[in-house]
Amino acid sequence: MFGLKSSKHAVDSSVLLLKLVYKIPWICTALRTLVDVCPQLTKPEVMSVLSRSSVLMRQRDRVEETLDAMQQAGAASLHVISDFDMTLTRFAHNGKRVPTTHNILDSRLLVDEECGKKMRELLNTYYPIEIDASRTVEEKLPFMVEWWTKVHHLLVEQKIRKDLLAPAVRESNAATSMLRDGYRVFFDHLAQRDVPLLIFSGGVGDVLEEVIRQHGVFRPSVHVIANYMDFDHAGVLRAFKGDLIHTFNKRKGALSHVARFPELQARRSVLLLGDSLGDLNMAAGVPEPRRLLTVGFLNDQVDARRESYVNSFDIVVLAQDDTMDVPNAILRFVMSSGDNNGN
Predict the structure, then answer these.
(1) pTM
(2) Which of 117, 146, 198, 215 is deepest in the core (most CB within 10 A)?
(3) 77 pLDDT exceeds 90?
(4) What residues are annotated to the active site?
């Protein structure tokens, strides 16, 4: 009898510790990483993570119902679609903005001082338009096309060398501080269960891949759709490949790239991660019926954009949380039922 009571006490204590760890955003990274590799979360535990002060939900009941349905379908029916810049990466670190994949190219290794200055001027001109809550997507579209087109033209003029991309990423410190805390658990857990991760980005695919590679988490289950550079036989940038991808045209891109990943057609459970309302279109190619749960990272102008994000995403993670705790908790719960065959 004494042994049974001791065992129950130990289990209760472990569950209490798990809940406490995930309610304290600033807790030691090492301890939280230890908890991240523990067995999957129960329903109360995942909802505890989603009940933090940094997490908002408009319809908690709907979130719970979707989680239950996704868990019942199992890992075999799941895939993840995610934006990259300011979604899988941090918005800021130690009080400084973390560079996007385009910003990393503003490096003395790759571009001259004048080009870097023009790129920063374009950022200061167009980024406020991108996040302006008073403008519609339709009003923003031509400005986004202008921004991306001008930046890509500047980069092509610099005749960037392919062999200098990796050193430029290392020089930017992106390989040590760019991805959100908990990223390794996120990538590893998906790879261990053979769950595909489709990264859909308006950034530069060559740089994006290098960032993930230098973090040591580029897995076979990771697929990237982004703006890729086209290098000539000497390894010098001469153009960008294919159609332009920017923040607000991901619906068109999602539909046009469905054929590239036929294995995803049977995976009707989707966890979608983004930091822009335009990212909600990344699941456009997933056929119905589907179980879709969307997580939006609200990184900037929180007060002005809070209402639109809460009304659009199922779950909203506010700026003070720069971790992958919410996606990781969802994944551990959804995958806790084993490999079911339902879709």
Answers:
(1) 0.86
(2) 198
(3) yes
(4) 83, 85
